[in-house]
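Entry 14. Ran structure prediction on the chain below.
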Amino acid sequence: MRVGFQTNINRPERIFQNPASRKAASGQIKTEQPSSAPQERITLQGREGSFKPLVSLSGDTLLNQASQSALDVASGANLPSMVTSRFAPAEFLMLNSGDYHGAEHPVKVAKATETFAKNAGISKERAEFLRDVSLLHDADERILMDGNGNYSYADKGVKARVPVTLAFMDLNQDALQERMGWSKGEFQEAKALIAGTEHPLNDNVGAGRINNLPHYDGKSAARVLKEQLSALPKQRQSQVLEELQIMRFADQSAEYLDGVESARTSVKDLASELEVVPYDALLKGTPNFIDGLGKDNEAFADLPVQTGRALITELGLEGQARIFTPQELHGFMSSDQSRTLAEVKENISR
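Output, structure tokens:
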């Protein structure tokens, strides 16, 4: 079944591609709150008590950034309970406002991750933890910082950026631990898992690696992942390195598990978001992309297998962590998912 939002407009998150959806589409970053400021709290659907609001990299809360019209749209988005019990609707839509990386994507990835993890023999509790991490894996408010204390927002459906997600998590550690029910250790594991989803994953420091985020700028995706894994206790690194492969596989396959027409829509959205490859070309290349799931792709410099093996050596995890083969990763799918993926691969470009 295709995951969808029952709302009076299509893709409600796209309202946040318009600068008018924010009270301040640009401005100066707030570095600290006045000591006399009251501590804001919000309620979440189906949860008792109140919770800290999530804070934007602009220094204000996400909800305070949203215009009233945007809040109204968000309130009409029929988001699933796994989302609304952890995020205010406007928060989730602001963090997932891309064309391809929209609000449906993390939900699909979360569901696929949970299924794959359980089929891999991971406990129900841990599979649910991985599901919840997946909801955050593309959290990016599309903020642009100039390095001089000023910010603005992208005015189109640009892709999510893992370093921005990690910086957002750093800023909101207490709030996320409270909402997700995570310990400090689980929060650190969540960051490592998300670092492993970056595409392309390699040791190159190329264009696009500068977001004016001091802890992450100028570092390759592989280096960021190594730093996140290294921050974990030694006895946790092997398990997390294996789990991130499952989450990464879910991230890259989930858009193709709802049938051919849904997959074509996803490819169209990806072409719109990337703006560098025409839809027809992406569609034609999708069967090869599906065939390459779980493998290194030299053409796109996406090297998860090579990176994973290097990390095992560099972290001293030989004999403790393994790199799953593509066959093993595909084996974590349900029979229905495997059948649908094969149908999409066969028919999507016809």
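The longest strand covers residues 150-153. Will compare against last week's run tomorrow.
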